[in-house]
Amino acid sequence: MRKLTVAAFMSLDGVMQAPGGPEEDTSDGFLYGGWIVPYADNVSGQDIQDLFAKPFELLLGRRTYDIFAAYWPYREADSNSHAIADLFNSVPKHVATHHPDSLDWHNSHALQGNLVDAIRALKHERGADLLTQGSGDLVRQLLAAGLVDELRLMIFPVVLGRGKRLFDDTAQALAFTLAHSVSTPGGVLIARYVSQGEVRTGTFE
After folding, report:
1. Three-class SS of residue 83?
2. What is the pLDDT of residues 63-115, one digit of tens each?
3. Residue 56 bridge partners (DSSP)
4. Which parts of the sequence belong to the Bacterial bifunctional deaminase-reductase C-terminal domain (predicted)?
5. Is 70 helix (H, G, I), strand (E, B) or coil?
6. What is the pTM for the complete model shown?
7. 183 or 79: which carries more pLDDT confidence?
8. Which of 5, 111, 146, 149 could form a disulfide with 118 if both were Cys (CB 3.0 to 4.6 A apart)?
9. CB neighbours of 42 closer than 8 A, spacing ≥ 6?
10. Degrees to nearest 5, angle at CA 167 with 165 and 168
11. Residue 108 in 3-state DSSP?
């Protein structure tokens, strides 16, 4: 069975909305779009390159798909993002959408039927591991169904106060093991957590 990894940019208070730019997602009056930009550096850039170094297929919610589809197909001539553009444009993209006929980005496929069942079946298919970026609504459904095998988080030293959050009260209780961590000069904590099953509890003597 192939692994499902969720990669996310997250504030200290768990917000993941519109990390990359002011117009990315202004829903509910969100004012801080682009909050990760001041913290970009070589350390975080290298981690992103490492994330994409192994074969993967993208698993995306519709809003994130539309953002990516409006950006990556047009970045091939930009040397700074050429490698990622080539990857994103070529890999299979599995999309949670009610409008499958409008998926016109190369190699895009709509998930059919019940979303959780479709993703569970996708994990059992042969192929590269699945990678989800952004896609907050989708990620929360994945967490509620216990389908996430690994979390790749960049935790930024900001408190945003409001906005769409990575975790909510529907997440299934799971224990994770910290497999790797590093901090950037700007104070961003980069952490990779691997699912370890049920949460254990105890008491202090």
Report:
1. helix
2. 999 999 998 988 765 555 678 888 999 999 999 999 888 999 999 999 999 99
3. 129
4. 2-189
5. coil
6. 0.91
7. 183
8. 111
9. none
10. 95
11. strand
> 59: which residues sit within 8 A by CB, 6+ positions away?
4, 94, 119, 122, 130, 131, 132, 135, 138
Considering the four listed CATH numbers 3.40.50.300, 3.40.430.10, 3.30.70.100, 3.30.360.10, the one that applies to the domain covering 4-42+50-198 is: 3.40.430.10
Residue 118 has pLDDT above 60, yes or no: yes
47/179 Cα distance (integer angstroms): 14
Token pair 């993703």: residue: 119
How far apart CA 64 and CA 135 sit, in angstroms, is 5
d(CA 175, CA 188): 23
Assigned token pair, 42:
């070589």
Domain boundaries, the chain: 4-42+50-198
Residue 69: partners with Cβ closer than 8 Å, 6 or more residues away: 104, 105, 108
Q: In whole angstroms, give the CA distance from residue 69 to residue 63.
A: 10
- Compute the residue count for the chain: 205
